Structures are given as C-alpha cells and as structure tokens.
Amino acid sequence: MRTLYHHPLSTQSRLVRLAMNEKHLVADEREEPYWLRRGDLLSLNPSGDVPVLVEEDGEIICGGRVICEYLEDESPEVSLLGATPKARAETRRLVDWFDSKFCTEVTQFLAGEKLYKRVALGEVPDSRAMRAGRENIHAHLEYIAWLTDRRSWLAGDALSLADLAAGAHISLVDYTADVPWSDHPLAKEWYVRLKSRPSFRPLLSEMFPGVAPAAVYADLDF
Length: 222
What we know:
This protein is α+β, with helices and mostly antiparallel strands.
C-alpha cells in the first residue's frame, strides 16, 4: 500500500487527501509534525515539507500539487483537472490563486496565527495579522460567489482541484470561526455542497489539541 505523510495543518496535505478521497484511492496515512524537521521526513523530502507520497515500489513524490498531478496521470478514471486544455488551465489558475493569493492574504493571517502558532510553536497569535485576514477574506468570498454564480463549480461544470484547493484553505479558516458566512450566501452555498461530499468527512472529524473547532465546522447544514 502507498504511504502518505501529511499533517492536518498543511493545506497541501489537505488538498492531497481530498483528491485521493475523490479518486477513491487508499493510502496508509501517517501524520507528520513537519515543523520538527525529523530525520525520517528529511530523508524522504530534503525540504522537510509535507505531503510526501511513497508508492509501493519506493517511488517518492513530494509536494501537494505535484502529487495531485501525478495522481491524475496514474488514476485518470476520475478527473479533477478537466477534459480540455482550457479547462485544465482554468483549474490550475484557480489552484494557484488559493495556494498563493488566498494563502498569503487570508490563511496565513488566520489559520496561521490561530492554529499553526499555537499547535506547532506554542506562541500567541498576532491580533494585527488576524485583523488583516478578516478584512481580506471578504474579497475572496465575493470572488467565489462570482464564479459559482456563473458555473456549477469554481472552474466549470464539474468538481475539480480548484474546489478542493479552496476547501483545503477555507476549512482551516472555518475551524477558527473566521469565515463570515452570513455576509456571503453564495459562497456559503458552494461550501455547503463541498463539505457535504464524502471526501470531506475525514477532515471534518479532526481536531487540533488545545483549539476547539467552530460550532459549525462539522455541521453540514449550518
């Protein structure tokens, strides 16, 4: 059986787990506190990051988006990229949007401060950073609403890695109760559909030590 080294605090790990669940792929999941930079992880990935996928033959694939692209080639029966070059380009554009722009403007300021700092570093969050994240998230939720008002899912008519990448980030922010869902009903409608999928259930059942989830975090009808 393939082995996946991951951690729930890692959005890239969450992305890969969601993608594997959507593709009905099984792995021996091993939670790895990547901030400790343990030798076992460094021997697999010199960067010390997760996720890392180790195939049964010993082949090692590192990085969330790299693993997802690899799984698209290995298990094309359920496509999460799109059927045409233009569809795949749009999916990749939006994955990059959430992994770069959303991450630096929202995820790092909210989940980074309230979860990563507490769980991994034992530090107190910066209130100024959290304030910036709460201000920035509105524009992103409006963009999600704009996309889903014109499409069934973020990148088109079918669920894709774009939705999973967005869900990987937003689910961490939702854990800390920092998503203003009442102000963005269309974005909320999209997220309700996403979090209701079976692929999301393992993420919604996880908790971080010392930090309780928002009351609606695992609620499918919030």
